[in-house]
Every structure is written in C-alpha cells, then in structure tokens.
Write a structure and sequence with these properties.
DNA-binding; 321 residues; alpha+beta; sequence-specific DNA binding; six-stranded antiparallel sheet; Arc Repressor Mutant, subunit A; five-stranded antiparallel sheet; DNA-binding transcription factor activity; Jelly Rolls; 12 helices; transcription; 11 strands; single chain; 2 domains
C-alpha cells in the first residue's frame, strides 16, 4: 500500500511536490492553489491496488488541476477516473459539461485522454479510482458522452455504484486474486451503468444551472483578451440577469470576477509555457490584463513567481526537451 504526504516536505516546496506526485502516479497535469499558500499545502494520498484497479484516498488542501490539450498529446493516457467525494466540494469540467460534487457519495467520471479541469474549493477528501477505458467503454460504448456528469450517491443506480466504490477503499490490503478482480470489475461496471442510466435512461434530469454556468465560462474563456469584459456582458450573452450569473458562480464557491482572473492568469501561464520567447507584456495584453505592472503583480500573487522568471524557467525546460 502506497502512502504519500507533503507533511515532511518544506512548505515552499509542497505545491510542486504535490504536482510532481500527481504526474508520477497518474499522468501529466498542471496544478495550482486558489491563493498563495503561506500556511503550507497539506495533502496526503493512500493507494490501494485491488483487482486490477488503483484506488486512492486523497486528502488535499484547496487546489486546481488542469490536463490541457498539449498534455494529452505529449503524455497520453488510456484510463478513466471515477472521482467520489467524501468531504468538501469539487467541480469538474470536460466536454462542455460541469459536474459539481457537494455531498458525500456524489461522484463523476473524467476521461484522462482528453482535456479537463478540476477544482477543489476547500480541504477535500475524495476516492479516485483509475479504470482501464475498455471496461467502461464495454458498458457505455463511447466514453465521451458520460464524462463530467454530477452523480448523486443518494438514490437509484448511482447509490448502488457509490456504495460499491466506497467498499473498495475499505479493503485492508492490496489484492489481485480472481475474486478481487471480479469484485473490482463489478464496481466499475456498476458505475458505468449508473452513468449510462443518467445520460440515456428515463431518469435523465439535466442540470440547467450547471449548463448555464458552463455557457458563461465558455463565453468568458473565448473573450479573455477583452480587458473590459464585464459581468453584464457575460450575462447578456446567455442571456440571464447579472444577479442570476452571480448566483451560478456562488453554486461553486466563486464569483465571475474571481473565475475570470484565474482563467486569465492560467491562460497567461500556458502562453508563457508554450512560447517562452513571447514578450511578457504581449502575454498580458493577450489575456486582457494590458497594464504590465498589474499583470506582474497578479501573476506573482497567483504563482509565487514573476512572469519573467516563470518564462525563463519555461525556456530552460524547452531547451532541455
């Protein structure tokens, strides 16, 4: 049984240690805390190998994970992840859908072979089950349509699947015998069946608020370069009232301004990472923060490093590759 913790890592190195850990045991991802982490980044992971599945209990400080198109191309993966909430609140975005997990037992599925993002808004505990894609595809056919759905673990097939997933993490030791393989596959197929019922079955109940939030985020992502982008403009694009727009973001513990700032800074980080030769001020303009001093201050507050210093590190990394 594998155990990993940031507690014995110097505070200044804890976030990077966590990002490296996730990349080493899962696949390449970018991570970032939602705010500077002067108090440290206390996170732990316990891994169980059971019947051909990897089952992780993850307890972590607030952070954001993104698997970009570039990372899926350079570091491909052929697994899906079932993410089940035990404590806290989390949001997953993939294929234009938004899954918001707020109650213990809620779960969703993400395809690690395509781009997605996940945000853990408070200290969160979750169970992460890595499943070979063919097991899920054998039940649902195409995996894409069943990703990033909010699955409530309180009733119906999803409740049965949720109980089966929780039973996996309660196993005392690693096992890979025939009985364990049968039980593990059954849990994965129960989850896939619940997702299929959610998407195509008679109980399908779309979440209109999540859909509207997704539309607002997509509009903002498409217009990050507009420095004067306002909540009124975003609300009018849907169209909904500004008050309702703020309520949608409140559902996931955020505000339009906070999400827009984070999206702009993350896009800036990606631009600096992808093209280190690009001038820093040009990057700021490209993400809607044209004043150089303001852009530098926001970037440093978010990533604990100035954009020029980050660009220099990215340039060295490109040179090494």
């Amino acid at each position: 049984m594998l155990r990993i913790s940031t507690r014995d890592v110097p505070r200044a190195d804890q976030q990077e240690f966590w990002r490296t850990t996730l990349t080493d045991i899962y696949f390449a991802v970018d991570t970032a805390p939602p705010a500077p982490v002067a108090a440290g980044f206390d996170s732990r992971l316990t891994r169980l190998e059971f019947g051909g599945l990897t089952v992780d209990r993850v307890r972590a400080a607030p952070y954001r994970v993104e698997r970009t198109d570039r990372l899926t191309r350079t570091c491909p993966s052929d697994t899906v992840q079932i993410c089940l909430l035990r404590r806290g609140r989390s949001t997953f975005v993939q294929e234009g859908r938004v899954a918001v997990l707020t109650r213990p037992g809620d779960f969703t599925l993400v395809d690690t072979g395509t781009a997605y993002s996940a945000e853990f808004h408070v200290h969160t505990e979750q169970v992460v089950v890595q499943v070979p894609r063919p097991i899920v595809a054998g039940v649902v056919g195409q995996v894409g349509p069943v990703t990033a759905w909010t699955m409530s673990g309180r009733s119906g097939p999803a409740a049965v699947a949720s109980s089966a997933l929780l039973a996996l993490i309660r196993q005392p030791t690693d096992r890979d015998d025939p009985s364990a393989r049968i039980a593990a596959r059954a849990a994965a197929e129960l989850t896939a069946g619940a997702l299929l019922d959610r998407v195509d079955g008679p109980s399908r109940q779309p979440n209109p608020r999540a859909a509207l939030l997704g539309r607002a985020r997509r509009f903002m992502s498409d217009h990050l370069h507009e420095a004067d982008l306002s909540p009124a403009c975003v609300a009018a694009s849907i169209p909904i009232s500004e008050r309702y727009l703020f309520a949608l973001f409140a559902d996931v513990g955020s505000t339009p301004a906070t999400w827009l700032r984070e999206a702009r800074l993350e896009r800036a980080r990606q631009l600096l990472d992808d093209d280190p030769a690009r001038p820093v001020q040009e990057v700021g303009v490209a993400v809607g923060i044209p004043r150089a001093s303001h852009f530098s201050r926001l970037f440093r507050a978010r990533y604990a490093v100035a954009p020029r210093a980050y660009r220099a590190v990215a340039a060295r990394r490109h040179h090494d590759e």
